[in-house]
Amino acid sequence: MTRPTADAERHPAALALTCIGTGIALLGSAIALANRATVRRLPDVAAPAAAPITVCIPARNEAMRLPALIGDLRAQAGVLRLRVLILDDASTDDTYAAALHAIAGDERFMVLRNKIEPGPGWTGKAAACARLAAHVDAPTLIFLDADVRLAPQAIAAAAAEFHHRGVALLSPWPRQRTGSAAEAVVQPLLCWSWASTLPISMANRSSRPSTAVACGQFLVFDTAAYRAIGGHGAVAASPTEDLGIARVLRRNGFRTALVAAGRQVETRMYCDAAELEAGYTRWLWSAYGGSAGAGAAVGAIAALAYWVPPLAAVAGSGVIRRAGLLGYSAAVAGRLLSRSTEVGGPITATDVLAALAHPLSIGVYLGLWARSRSRHRRGALRWKDRPLPP
Question: What is residue 387's DSSP assignment?
Fold first, then answer.
């Protein structure tokens, strides 16, 4: 009769690696559980927002998506003094005409046109946001991406949470909708990346720039604080201007916070695998401070935590297999808990299948990171037909 420890004795290194990977996966799952229980959500119903609010929407080649957002903004309830500024940023499609048609004469809306390309050292989005902000005189400034969809109380709820928190920047995290297998595999990693690594209730109270989390699809600013740091000029060249501006605010003594908004706000960032690949390639090189060494270290940890345990569960036996099954189960649980935090409600069968494919997700992510770094080194990065700053 084989002793239960025989497999471990024959392969001590495999057992050690599996146990370490499982430990990391369990820690990530525990953090995801804590965030699921503690992350604040936008309220479904909010008191009317009486103070002036200006919503700014940079739009380049968004004729297909922008009208739906305009319709959502026109239907907002509980925002007594709403102004919406839209910038058609040198679009080559019918963005301007589509915006005017959707506005249908609503006097709260204004469409601006820009035909000037970004200056040296500016990304297109940062330049567009800066141009929009120059026209804002309200104390509260909101930036929305054109692909965002809003429930009727979303702006009022965000304004109420913003003033309740007393922060310079509130980031309501949207639900990331998916419509293809590639999106389902990759997009939930955005939320998972912070939900399984950073206790948000603590991060929201911290002043450390490294613990800031923000999503540029929906940002609520105190206008005075935004201008005090130089607005988007402070992150002009950043491929991740949302996270960058949150960190600049914290470095200057301002507070930022993240709140889950999946019941009120959703978006489909990319429409297919090709657009997803282009989108992540655009910015992923800058993760981990843009350091190849740091990125490689993170990749090694991810492989240890999310590849080794499932491999051990399949190829190992005895205690190694049991440790691997535990690690893989923890990874799947962490992914599902993160997704539940994001959506603010029941998860779907697609979410479950994507969580079960978490090792594949990590592989795709690491491949995108390597591709992004390669294209950045060659100076070949572009977004929406524009070159990006080096």
Answer: E
Instruction: Tell me the DSSP string of 297-360.
Output: HHHHHHHHHHTHHHHHHHH--HHHHHHHHHHHHHHHHHHHHHHHHHHSSPPPHHHHHHHHTHHH
Contacts of 110 (CB under 8 A, 6+ apart): 83, 84, 85, 86
Using alpha carbons, list the distances in angstroms from residue 70 to 17, 67, 144, 148. Answer: 52, 5, 11, 10
Residue 56 half-sphere exposure toward CB, CA atoms < 13 A: 27
Q: Which residues 6+ apart lie within 8 Å of 334 measured at CB?
A: 25, 28, 29, 31, 32, 192, 196
* CA–CA gap between residue 140 and residue 2 (Å, rounded): 69
Structure tokens at 346: 């029941």
Ordered DSSP codes for 76-104: --SBSSEEEEEEEES-SSSHHHHHHHHHT
pTM of this structure: 0.94
- DSSP type of residue 117: P
CA dihedral 223, 225, 226, 228 (to 10 degrees): 120
Residue 345's pLDDT is 85
CATH superfamily of 53-271: Spore Coat Polysaccharide Biosynthesis Protein SpsA; Chain A (3.90.550.10)
Please name which of 238, 165, 219 lies closest in space to residue 390, comparing C-alpha atoms.
Answer: 238
Under a CB-based contact definition with an 8 Å cutoff, are residues 331 and 251 in contact?
no
Average pLDDT, the chain: 95
- Where do the structural domains in the chain lie, given as residue ranges? 6-38+277-373, 53-271
DSSP code of 60? S
Q: Crossing angle for the helix pair 12-38 and 318-343, nearest 10 degrees?
A: 20
CB within 8 A of 23, min separation 6: which ones? Answer: 327
Is there a contact between 220 and 154 (Cβ–Cβ < 8 Å)?
Answer: no
**Numbers of helices and strands, H then E, in the chain:** 17, 12
Partners of 220 in the beta sheet?
142, 170
Termini Cα distance of the chain: 64
DSSP SS3 for 119: coil
Alpha-carbon distances, residue 182 vs 27, 185, 191, 242, 370 (angstroms): 27, 5, 16, 24, 17
Banded model confidence at residue 208, pLDDT cuts 50, 70, 90: very high
10 Å CB burial of residue 87 (0-12, 13-18, 19+) is buried
